[in-house]
Amino acid sequence: MKLYQTTLPVSYVNTFLDGVKISPLELSRILQLAGITEELLSKVDSRITQEQFSTLFKLLVERVDDEVLGIYGRPLRRGSLKILMLLLLDASNLHSALRRWQQFDRILSDEFSFVFIRTNDNLSLTLNRYPRDTRDPRLVQEFHLKLVHGLASWVIGKKIIPERVDFAVWQSS
Which of 7, 38, 72, 78 is paired with 101 by a 20 to 30 Å CA distance? Predict the structure, then answer.
């Protein structure tokens, strides 16, 4: 049996890095610590491992004190997601955990909201609003989907396999 390693496209990584406010020298040092070469980032079809991205993300969050690295328009200070996870720990089910998350998001910002609808064994999640000042609306959608997927899987104790993902077309106002 062949095992496959989860990887991410370099284009996704570069989109994250485009808005991170640190010097090129600091970024170079952080990339080196994450095991990512600048040459690799310049190759369009390249991929990095999930571990490399996780290390890169963690180091950047520590450096800029923003758990969403500037994609929400305003910082989400370090520890915010830990507090969210603590709120979800004793949720009796996924529905309860997602309701708590909605409340948490509402406390953080009026500019961000999502709704979910459960029908039989399916759950549909829709981002209603996201920050006007976001630097990349598509990245916000992808990032929030990853957060919801990861935390929802964690809450129920197994990886959820999405059946379908649709992204909204962003229209600036």
Answer: 7
- Domain boundaries in the chain? 7-64, 80-156
Distance CA 58, CA 37 (A): 17
* 4 exposure class (CB count in 10 Å sphere: 0-12, 13-18, 19+): exposed
List phi, psi (to 5°) of 8.
-125, 145
Instruction: Give the burial string for 22-54 (b: 16+ CB within 10 Å, else e).
Output: eeeeebeebbeebebeeeebeeeebbbeeebbe
pLDDT-derived band at 129, boundaries 50, 70, 90: low
Instruction: Using alpha carbons, select from 4, 13, 68, 60 the residue that is nearest to residue 33.
Output: 60
CA 43 – CA 48 distance, rounded (Å): 11
Q: Give the span between the Cα atoms of 62 and 114, in whole angstroms.
A: 27
pTM, full prediction:
0.78
Contact between 17 and 34 under an 8 Å Cβ cutoff? The reply is: no
**Angle, alpha carbons 144-18-58 (nearest 5°):** 60
The kind and range of the H/E element at 48 are strand 47-49
Residue 24 confidence (pLDDT) above 90 = yes
CA dist 74 and 76 (Å) reads 7
Which structure tokens are listed for 100? 């708590």
